[in-house]
Structure formats: C-alpha cells, structure tokens
Amino acid sequence: MVVFALLRSRLSVNRPGKLQHTMELIYEFVNGQAEDQVGHHAHRYLAYFGTIFIFILTCNLIGLIPGFEAPTAIPSVPLGCAVITWLYYHMYGLRENGPIGYFKHFLGPVWWMAPLMLVIEVASHLARILSLTVRLFANMFAGDMVTLVFFSLFPIAIPVIFMLLHVGVSLVQTYIFVLLATVYIGEAVAHEH
C-alpha cells in the first residue's frame, strides 16, 4: 500500500519515474495475458490478476533477502492463493452464466456422456487447487533450499548464480500461476455460441 501511495503521488505523463515505468510494464503484461485468455471483457478481472501477480512475485523474491524465507515456500501461502483463485473463478462463472449455464460447462457437449464428464470435470476442478499449490510451493521451496545449501558451502561467489536462478524461477512461477488463473477464469466465464 505504501508503494502504491508513493506511486500515486509521483504519477507524471511528462516525466514518469522508474517505479511508474515498472508498474506500467506489469500492467501491460498482465493486461495482455488477460485479454489473450479471457477475451474482450478481461478488464473486469484485471484487478485480481494484477494483485495476485504482484503478491506472488513479491513473496517469491523475499527469499532472496538473507535471513528470510520466501512466503510461497510455506505451503499455506500458495494454498491460500490457489483456494482464492478457485473460489474467484467459480464465483464469476456462476455470475456470468447463471447456475444452470455454469453447470452445463461440467456436462460436456454430448448429452449421453454427461455423467462421465461431470465426474471428470469435478475431479479436474478439485485437482486445480492441488496443482496450483504444489507447483508454486515446490519450486519456491526447492529454490530456497538450493540457495541456502550453496551459501553454506561457498559463502562468496557461487551463490550469486543460484540467486539469479531464484529470480528466474520466481518470475516463471508467478507467470505460470497468473496464466493458469486467467485460463481458468476464461473457461468459467465463456458463453456457449
């Protein structure tokens, strides 16, 4: 909140600062991903995508500070993000399509396969929570452990390589989480044509 308060007070069209450029870059990236996956009405969900992007990226990068552990390397943080995302896309799927229309998403296009498709879809949606959680947690936990091990073995130069790797993994895992969130919301709010 402090960062955004500072950013708001320093917004300038003529002389944007580094923080403004960074936030505009994040906005353009998240907006592009959302429009690619959700479509022309992606702006409705942009606040969520941006918030989850900044939150996960910040949590991932905190692990680079000596003495700190990335919050996403603790299972409850990725689980919380996954559950919120799961609830969010179901809520908007219900809101956009209505209960009956959203339920039809789970039945598939062929009526005689609907019972099988319902079981598969329910299992698939429940597995998404586990998938989002484990992917983010395992990668960040492993990154923290590798960096810690190399800091204990070689305290000077070698850990820098692994810290750069940690930055890369942090960016990729943030991207994957937000990409999957946009895909899930895009599927949930899609209308039959």
> Measured on Cα atoms, how large is the radius of gyration?
20 Å
Largest sheet: none
Quick check: average pLDDT? 89
What is the ordering of alpha helices and beta strands? Answer: HHHHHH
Number of E-type strands: 0
How big a fraction of the residues is strand? under 5%
Summary keywords:
193 residues; mainly alpha; 6 helices; 0% strand; flat
Walk me through what this model shows:
- There is one protein chain.
- The protein is an all-alpha fold and 193 residues long.
- It contains six helices and no strands.
- The radius of gyration is 20 Å and the shape is flat.
- Helices cover 76% and strands 0% of the residues.
Q: What's the helix and strand layout?
A:
Blueprint: H1 2-9, H2 18-37, H3 46-62, H4 76-105, H5 114-153, H6 158-188
Helix pairs in contact: 2-3, 2-6, 3-6, 4-5, 4-6, 5-6
